[in-house]
């Protein structure tokens, strides 16, 4: 374990911790402790009121974000029906369902039909689609909004610290393409950070004509 990761002490509802452990035991992806802690630090500093999440899984990061931002509403989307239904139940159980708009389906299709302005985006869905989502995300983000993209170093494969398995070259190439695009985009200020499995933190600096 990295020294910095060893210092992380998640200050979240113990019931969320229990749910996270259970989800991991069932092979359901959840943000690791270091990433979730940094996500919550970022939210505490910015206190967004409209959050967009791509990749609900069973809703545990969603709940943690809403608990950290009591004045926020969250829109989230999940492709797999079983996870979507479990997330909906978790939202009810944790008392946040009235602040959530949850959609089931392909994020790319849903984003294309959305409008409105969001001041925080948590991008944690299919990694190979990150760059594809960017066009609509820019359309939906207000000036000063934060785009928090998770898993952008993917086990060290993207950075080259670990050899990429043969079957994973395509996804690694697509994540690298996303990183190249977002860091070169003059409408964003971006840092790529070695936190968890890699975080690209981008601030949208352009006022879009709407």
Describe the structure.
By secondary structure, this protein is α/β, with parallel strands linked by helices. Helices cover 41% and strands 21% of the residues. The protein is built from eight helices and seven strands. The protein has a seven-stranded mixed β-sheet, sandwiched between helices. β4, α7 (130-140) and β5 (141-150) form a beta-alpha-beta unit. α3 packs parallel to α4 and α6 runs parallel beside α7 (130-140). The longest helix is centred in the last third of the chain and has 16 residues, at 169-184.
A few lines on this structure:
With 210 residues, this protein is α/β, with parallel strands linked by helices.
Identify the notable features of this structure and list them briefly.
single chain, 8 helices, 21% strand, seven-stranded mixed sheet, 210 residues, alpha/beta
How far apart, in Å, are the first and last alpha carbons?
46 Å
- Number of helical segments? 8
Mean pLDDT: 94
H/E series, N to C? HHHEHEHEHEHEHEE
SSE class: alpha/beta
Percentage beta strand: 15-25%
Shape: globular
Helix content bin: 40-55%
* Largest sheet, spatial ordering of strands: 3-2-1-4-5-7-6
Number of strands: 7
Largest sheet: 7 strands, mixed
Q: Could you name the ranges where pLDDT drops below 50 across 5 or more consecutive residues?
A: none
Rounded to an integer in angstroms, the radius of gyration calculated over CA atoms is 16 Å
